[in-house]
Amino acid sequence: MSAGPVPFVDFRARVARLRGELDAAIARVLDSGWFVLGPEGEAFERELASALGAREAVAVANGTDALHLALRAHGIGAGDEVVTSSISAAFSALAILHAGARPVFVDVDPLTLNIDPTAAARAITPRTKALMPVHLYGHPADMDPLVGLARERGLLLLEDACQAHGARYRGRPVGTLAGKDGIGALSFYPTKNLGALGDGGAILLNDPETAALLRQLRNGGQRDRYRHESEGWNSRLDELQAALLRVGLGHLQAWIGRRRELAALYDRELAGSGVVPLLEQPYAHAVRHLYVVRHPRRAALMEALGRRGVATLIPYPIPLHLQPAFSFLGGKRGDLEVAEQATDEILSLPLYPELEDETAGRVVEAVRAAAREC
Ligand SMILES: Cc1ncc(COP(=O)(O)O)c(C=O)c1O
Q1: How does strand 81-85 pair with strand 128-132?
Q2: Total domains present in the chain
Q3: 210 and 301 together in one domain
Q4: 163 lines ligand 1 (CB under 6 A)
Q5: Which of 233, 249, 265 is the last residue of a domain?
Q6: Any idea of the CA torsion for 361, 267, 354, 347, to the nearest 10 degrees?
Q7: Residue 2 is assigned to a structural domain of this protein
Q8: Is the minimum distance from the CB of 64 to ligand 1 under 6 angstroms?
Q9: 52, 60, 228, 373: which could join 221 in a potential S-S bond, CB 3.0 to 4.6 Å?
Q10: What is the DSSP letter of 192?
Q11: Mutate-to-test residue for ligand 1 from 60, 64, 65, highest number of ligand atoms within 8 A of CB
Q12: DSSP per residue, 95-158
């Protein structure tokens, strides 16, 4: 056990464990002399789709593009509204703006901080074209009511699964829960449960025609070389990242298992400590991307944890309707009370597959002592 500070994540430990496999993947790409949109990317798409229960996967440059291109592939753009959660990475909503549409932020379920389906239903107007739930922190949103709502109102249901690779809702993998129309976005930002050594993203879906359109859109709208059918984007995943992600994909289930073990340890050991963890709901198989707890005196708690050598983060300190980038939409404090209170209280503890039980035990001791002080 190292007695030093506990980092929030430890990429060097991850790379050290995988070094031989990563070096072999890099060598394979270097030897192939093919660097963009090639056999590694194609193999990754096949392996990813099969691992996550989708008919198709389309690899792109990042998760933001995955969301943006999924909206564009469904013709969503200027004048359209997309109903989404008020707690997420701002990139979720930026993707809606990139498509030319308008995000409509709604309040969250206090148990999971995922979109509240009743609030989503209330926000629908004649301009609404899509619902975009976010499976925040790796815990699926309550999808049955949202699938029903999307069907009833003829809306696209786009799952932001950027933090939730491999999560399941009532036994079914997230990303394509809307059946034949199912579509979801993944990010491979390095901190994600399946992370690249750089940026990457993918769209999971069940419709091969939309997948073909997405393959055009990510490559400047080209159908064949130099024939541009549509106003596409440049969002190609390079062969090196695809090869490295193939290595990670082989470990994803084990990593999820380890994240769940650590989360169970925290759930058990932090009960009654003064911090309130967000717990897994009965419908969910969460992949514990982040382990988030609430505390009414968050700043003092984080300071006390910092003094004890435990790194923490706030995901996210500002709900999206109050982010400066979205102020033109007119959101103000008091609009979405559950999200506003939650974003004042949440913090995330270190949780990554390489974290050892003993180190997690030190985090528990530090949280208990810090909470007594605050
Ligand atoms: C929920 C969510 N949506 C979208 C994104 C955007 O992904 P990327 O950073 O790969 O563009 C992220 C990650 O930053 C995310 O966590």
Answers
A1: parallel
A2: 2
A3: no
A4: yes
A5: 249
A6: -90
A7: no
A8: yes
A9: 228
A10: S
A11: 64
A12: HHHHTT-EEEEE-B-TTT-SB-HHHHHHT--TTEEEEE-B-GGG----HHHHHHHHHHHT-EEE
Reported as half-sphere exposure (CB side, CA atoms, 13 A), residue 357 has a value of 4
Ligand 1 center to residue 62 CA distance, Å?
Answer: 8
Ligand 1 within 6 A of 59 CB?
no
In 3-state terms, what secondary structure has residue 195?
Answer: coil
Helix (H, G, I), strand (E, B), or coil: what is residue 84?
strand
Does residue 271 share a domain with residue 342? yes
Of 65, 87, 91, the one to substitute when testing ligand 1's pocket (max ligand atoms within 8 A of C-beta) is: 91
Is residue 5 domain-resident? no
User: How many Cα atoms are found within 13 Å in the side-chain-facing hemisphere of 259?
Assistant: 30
Is 202 found in the same domain as 284? Answer: no
What's the Rg (C-alpha) of the chain? 21
Report how far apart the first and last C-alpha atoms of the chain are (Å, whole number). Answer: 28
Instruction: Give the number of other Cβ atoms within 10 Å of residue 25's Cβ.
Output: 23
Q: What is the DSSP letter of 335?
A: S
Return the CATH number at 78.
Answer: 3.40.640.10
Q: What is the reported pTM? A: 0.98
Establish whether residue 241 lines the binding site of ligand 1, counting it when its CB lies within 6 angstroms of any ligand atom. Answer: no
Closest protein CA for atom 3 of ligand 1? 92
Question: pLDDT by residue for the chain (374 residues), tens digit each?
Answer: 457 899 999 999 999 999 999 999 999 999 999 999 999 999 999 999 999 999 999 999 999 999 999 999 999 999 999 999 999 999 999 999 999 999 999 999 999 999 999 999 999 999 999 999 999 999 999 999 999 999 999 999 999 999 999 999 999 999 999 999 999 999 999 999 999 999 999 999 999 999 999 999 999 999 899 999 999 999 999 999 999 999 999 999 999 999 999 999 999 999 999 999 999 999 999 999 999 999 999 999 999 999 999 999 999 999 999 999 999 999 999 999 999 999 999 999 999 999 999 999 999 999 999 999 99
Query: What is the Å distance from ligand 1's center to 373 Cα?
Result: 35
Distance 89 CA to ligand 1 centre (A): 6
Distance between Cα 184 and ligand 1 center (Å):
12
